[in-house]
Specification:
Layout: H1 8-19, E1 26-33, E2 38-45, H2 52-67, E3 71-79, H3 85-101, E4 105-113, E5 116-119, E6 133-134, H4 137-146, H5 156-161, H6 168-179, H7 189-202, H8 207-217, H9 220-232, H10 238-251, H11 258-270, H12 274-287, H13 292-302, H14 307-315, H15 319-323
Parallel strand pairs: 3-4
Antiparallel strand pairs: 1-2, 1-3, 4-5, 5-6
Helix pairs in contact: 1-4, 2-3, 6-8, 7-8, 7-9, 7-10, 9-11, 10-11, 11-12, 11-13, 12-13
Length: 326
């Protein structure tokens, strides 16, 4: 998705929509690749004043691994109250200097508190007064127009709660339907894959739809082939599939959410939404702590693997290797 940040206040208004929640006591890095496209959005906690050097080194190492050395520009935005001004003024310039020593161009260093902001690298007090400038309604409107329908939670924990069951009656109905469904038969596996893919694209509007997808995902070969098909589909189909998977996870009974939540995590990661990817994978591990695919993807994110590298590996794998025969 193209992302146009016309001004510093555009960036500040956009960050909560990129993350899905309003950051606090944080530094957010928006990193672009050599084509000018959005490569990575990364949020880290502000350090303590005596930890700034080690903190900067760790953040830069993570950015380097995650971008594979293909990053070109970085924008730093600190979100912190005025009582933490001292650490903001220590941490952000230190991180910027280290990034630039590694070959990245830091286009600006911003600090936002409440609905006010200023640039830490701007010496013009008329442009960036000590009291800051307000984030305009126009900037907020531009940010929301770039992410239609995306809401912003107050905290990351609220984002995680968005994948919890919200309709107990629907969950119980899905559970009853699943109990009556037979395991996927080899002769019907291709039909199960096709039906599940169609439901992800077109939306699951009934508990029966969710139950059909969840029953199909109990079969590992269906799951793996569905992942292959989803990630080979046009990128414009990914957002509606993410929305459908969120609904399926909310309707899934205990013990049946891990597969759908893991696919949601993979798709979010490939969309550049690392926050929601981590939240979905957390949901998968809570549902089934031993779910190996969720553990594998979680480890890939933690190691800073670029999503494009993982996707290239999948796309180099023949579909038949996922589909298998048995």
């Amino acid at each position: 998705m193209p992302l146009a940040l016309r001004s510093p206040e555009d960036a500040i208004a956009t960050v909560p929509l990129l993350l899905g929640f309003a950051p606090e006591h944080s530094v957010v890095l928006i990193v672009c690749d050599r084509t000018g496209g959005l490569s990575l959005t990364c949020r880290v906690d502000l350090p303590q004043a005596d930890d700034v050097h080690a903190w900067s080194q760790e953040v830069v190492d993570v950015i380097g691994r995650a971008t594979g050395g293909r990053a070109r520009d970085a924008l730093l935005v600190a979100f912190a109250p005025t009582r933490r001004e001292q650490v903001v003024r220590l941490a952000v310039p230190a991180l910027a200097a280290l990034l630039e020593s590694r070959g990245l161009r830091v286009v600006d260093q911003l600090w936002s508190w409440g609905r006010r902001w200023r640039s830490l690298s701007c010496p013009d007090l008329d442009c960036c007064p000590p009291s800051g400038r307000r984030v305009s309604a126009a900037a907020r409107a531009r940010a929301h127009s770039a992410f239609p329908g995306r809401d912003v939670k107050a905290r990351r924990q609220d984002l995680r709660a968005g994948l919890d069951p919200v309709d107990r009656d629907a969950v119980e109905e899905v559970s009853r339907l699943l109990a009556a469904m037979e395991p996927v038969d080899e002769n019907l596996r291709d039909i199960a894959i096709s039906q599940a893919h169609d439901l992800l694209v077109n939306g699951c509007t009934r508990p029966r739809d969710a139950a059909m997808v969840l029953a199909a995902l109990r079969d590992t070969r269906v799951r793996d082939t569905l992942i292959w098909d989803v990630l080979h589909a046009p990128r414009r189909t990914w957002p509606p599939m993410r929305s459908t998977l969120e609904s399926i996870v909310r309707w899934a009974p205990r013990g049946d959410a891990a597969a759908a939540a893991t696919i949601l995590g993979i798709l979010s990661w490939q969309c550049g939404d690392g926050t929601r990817a981590n939240v979905a994978l957390q949901r998968a591990r809570e549902d089934d702590p031993g779910y190996s695919l969720a553990t594998l993807i979680d480890a890939s994110l933690a190691a800073g693997m670029p999503p494009g590298e993982w996707l290239a590996g999948l796309r180099g794998l023949p579909r038949g290797a996922c589909r298998g025969r048995g």
